[in-house]
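Now for today's protein:

——
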Amino acid sequence: MQLHAYSRSVKEQDNQNSYKILVTDDEENIRNLLCETLRLSGYSPTPAQSGTEALTLIKNTKFDLVLLDINMPVVNGFMVLEKIRSSNSNLPVIMLSARADKSDVVAGLRDGADDYVSKPFSIEELITRVSTVLRRVSPKMQESILRVGPIKMDLNSYEVYFNSDLIELSRTEFRLLQYLMSVLDSSTIKRIFCLQFGVMTSTPLLPLLIHTFRI
C-alpha cells in the first residue's frame, strides 16, 4: 500500500461534514496507515486495536462506517459483525482480510457486510470503496454534486468533470471553483469569462476558469 500514490486526492473537509469511520485492525502499522489516509481524504477516523475495543466504541459513539479486519485474536471480525447486526444496526461495515479463501467473502457478505477488501490492497481501491458504500447508504453523500452547465463537481470524491473529462485541480483551485459554482449562476460565470478574456462564451468553459485561477 503506497500512501503517496493517493496524493492527488488529498483533501480538506469542514469538521461538521466529516464522516466518522472506525478502523479496527490488530496490526498497528496497517491501522495507522489507514487512519492517516482516511484523515487526509477528509474523513474522521478512530482506531481500534481489537474486536472488543471496537464493540465498546460502537456502543458509545455514532460512526458512519466501520473498517473491520477479520483476522483478530479473541474477538475476530466475524464476531464483531454478528454483534453489530444482532443489535439491528444498519451501520455500514467493510471487511478487511489477508485470507485468500473465497468462503470468507461469502461468509462476510452473508452475515451483513456491505463490502469486502482483500489484503494487500491499494489506497485508491480502499478509499473508492469507502466512498461508494457511504454514497449508497448516506443521503448527504447523494446530495453532494454541484453542476453548472457541462461542469460537474463531486464534493465527496473531490473530482471535477467537464462533460465526461476528468479535470485535475489543486486544492485551492477546487475550493475556488466550488465557491463560484455555489454562489453564481451559469450566466454570471459567462459574464466573468467575458470580462476576463474579452470574448463571449456560449457555455461555461472550465479550462478558462482554471486559467483565471492561475494568473
User: Anything to note?
Assistant: The first strand starts at residue 20 and ends at 24. Residues 145-214 form one domain.
